[in-house]
What we know:
The chain is an all-alpha fold. The protein folds into two domains: 68 residues, no CATH class; 68 residues. Helix content is 78%, strand content 0%. It is built from nine helices and no strands. Helix 3 packs antiparallel against helix 5 and helix 7 packs across helix 8.
Amino acid sequence: MDWLKSIAPTIATAMGGPLAGMAVEAISKAIGVDPSRVQETINSGKMTADQIASLQTAEIALKARAQEMGLDFEKLAVADRSSARQMQMTTGSFVPPLLSVMIVIAWSTIQWFLLTHVIESSMRELVARVLGTLDGALMLVLSFYFGSSAGSSAKDQLLHQSTPSK
């Protein structure tokens, strides 16, 4: 997904937050794929020059739409994670940890299976879809428990653009 951040940072940020549906819709329309295949397309990183140009146009349109609506995707994503963590601290529910463990086990099991077995060609698309979904779910679990690297990424970018003092 790093390539998406370099081409369309607003869309990439929206993908990781509460406005993921808006981002998926923008990507789907821009590159001409079904919304259910957007994550697979992002994971593959294989796009034509025309699709990249369309994605950059969608980035500009999404930025304009966000400004009209007064949205800051990064602040919304941080607030979304914060409210989820706050809810967990308040309720002490066993569901988020249980789901997290199930996702990590499912992801690990699929990875192990892929490394130790040959997948029939008729099943490859299904396995890729399941793995793509689990990859996304695993990233959500990791972001929930360990936070997002968005702040670190922004800091690195600012350091890279700054001029060193003498």
